[in-house]
Amino acid sequence: MRLGTLLRSGPAAWLAPVMVPVLFWFGVQNTESVIQYWESATAQSLIVLGFVSAGCGACAAWESARIHRAEVDNWAPVRGRLHIAWLHLAPVAVLGLLGVLASLAAFSSTALGAPGFPSLGILVTAYAVVVSHIALGWLVGPLMPRVLGAAVMLVFGYLWGFWPAAIGELPWLRHLNGQGMSECCGLDQTASLRSMAATVLFSAGLVAAALIAVALNNRRRRDMGYAVSAAAVGTVGALVLAVPLEFRGVQARDPELRRCTGTRVQVCVWPEQYDREDDMVRWAQDTGKRLGEVGVTPAARVEFGEPHPSESVVRATTATSVLPSAPPDCAAMPGAEYPGDAAHSAIYAWLSLTAGEPEEELVQHWPSEAVALARQVRGLSADEQHAWYERNMRSVLDCSVKPDLRPASFRQEGGEKP
Predict the structure, then answer these.
(1) Which of 46, 82, 94, 389 is deepest in the core (most CB within 10 A)?
(2) What's the CA gap between 231 and 205, in Å, rounded?
(3) Secondary structure of the chain in HEC code, one letter for each residue
(4) Which residues are paired to 129 by β-bridges?
(5) Which residues form the DUF7224 domain (predicted)?
(6) Domain ranges for the chain
(7) Which pLDDT value is given to residue 12?
(8) pLDDT at residue 163 above 90?
(9) Inter-residue contact 100 to 49 (CB < 8 Å)
(10) What is the mean pLDDT of residues 327-348?
(11) Which are the contacts of 161, defined by CB distance < 8 A and separation ≥ 6?
């Protein structure tokens, strides 16, 4: 059959002019959470994978039902069933590839200029999901009257593409449909190889089962057990990989790519930050000096999550590195009170102001009451500020200690000493 005839008679060529631009437009509207890092841009592009796989599965079911109604399989056996399936599904497979690449193109706008390239592993994983839906659609199409198979694949593909990620009780399901990496990645992370392998293995099991079912053509029922076995093996293998992951779809990035510079404070940068390393080191070193004047020593090593952090971000991140990233264990106990929450907010604001972050920038992302209190504490002497900090850090680290945030309590010329 001529290519032109295939395209005119099949749904792929008719759907492509609608689906591809819509996917690109949708991707452009949803790039807020992407950072200038190719791994992040590639992973975030999977947000539309459910739409692509559902559309391709429906197209495959449509084509299969049409071929079944025409009884093409009963014509002269010049071509085998697998050859016929490939001939009619090739345009659908191209449509799926265009859909994946259209989304990638939209999200890649945020990563242009960053070192590296789109993640081939993530793209292969996404396309494996699309191919599995195409194979499943080809099987489902003849089993239902007319276009019902296409409608079923459209609904099933949409639900399977988005529903598992919303199930908290079975978090590992997201690693079977390709959504396990959709929230990847920070600069210090890459997509989990285990998550990608689980998705590919599950998809490969479905594709293998479809190939066997098409080749055997239901000649003997017991032979169809091979198809079921192929799907079962792929599913079991995928579960072995996916279940231990739970929600985790990322893994640590190769530490060899990170380099650390500095003395008072070591600043560690990733390839996306190399071009700004000198400025980041200078700002962090100056922050360490400023904190030293009030008796505070920042963390020995700091990293930054933004590819090109501003001076304010570098100063604030370096200064607040002394604060714990999460409340103490005592705060997680049922019914526990954590009085250190207010102290944490005030200390964060005080550290940021001490480091040199402008107050007008700090109030844009931090409570104004905490910033106002921090400004008052900054009016104390260096020793008094240090005493205020030490006293209230005890409240941050211990649920049984109530904070004392009043600057007047720490003035040496009057008031009760801490």
Answers:
(1) 46
(2) 4
(3) CCHHHHHHHCCHHHHHHHHHHHHHHHHHCCCCCCCCCHHHHHHHHHHHHHHHHHHHHHHHHHHHHHHHHCCHHHCCCCCCHHHHHHHHHHHHHHHHHHHHHHHHHHHHCCCCCCCCCCCHHHHHHHHHHHHHHHHHHHHHHHHCCCCHHHHHHHHHHHHHHHCHHHCCCCHHHHHCCCCCCCCCCCCCEEECHHHHHHHHHHHHHHHHHHHHHHHHCCCCHHHHHHHHHHHHHHHHHHHHHHHHHCCCCEEECCHHHCEEECCCCEEEECHHHHHHHHHHHHHHHHHHHHHHCCCCCCCCEEECCCCCCCHHHHHHHHHHHHCCCCCCHHHHCCCCCCCHHHHHHHHHHHHHHHHCCCHHHHCCCCCHHHHHHHHHHCCCCHHHHHHHHHHHHHHHHCCCCCCCCCHHHHCCCCCCCC
(4) none
(5) 267-399
(6) 3-253, 254-322, 338-418
(7) 80
(8) no
(9) yes
(10) 83
(11) 49, 50, 51, 53, 54, 177, 178, 179
pTM over 0.90, yes/no: no
Question: Please, are residues 218 and 224 in contact by the beta-carbon 8 Å criterion?
Answer: yes
Q: What is the pLDDT of residue 417?
A: 39
Residue 246, by phi and psi: left (phi above 0), alpha (psi -120 to 50) or beta?
A: left
Total length of the chain: 418
